[in-house]
Amino acid sequence: MALRAPAEIPGLILIEPKKFGDARGFFSETYSRARLVEMGFDKEFIQDNHALSVEAGVLRGLHFQSPPFAQDKLVRVVRGAILDVAVDIRRGSPTYGDHATVELSAGNWRQLLVPVGFGHGYVTLVPDTEVIYKVTGSYSPEHDNSLLWSDPELGIVWGRDATSLTLSDKDRAAPGFAALQSPFTWEPKP
Question: Model-level pTM?
Answer without folding.
Answer: 0.95
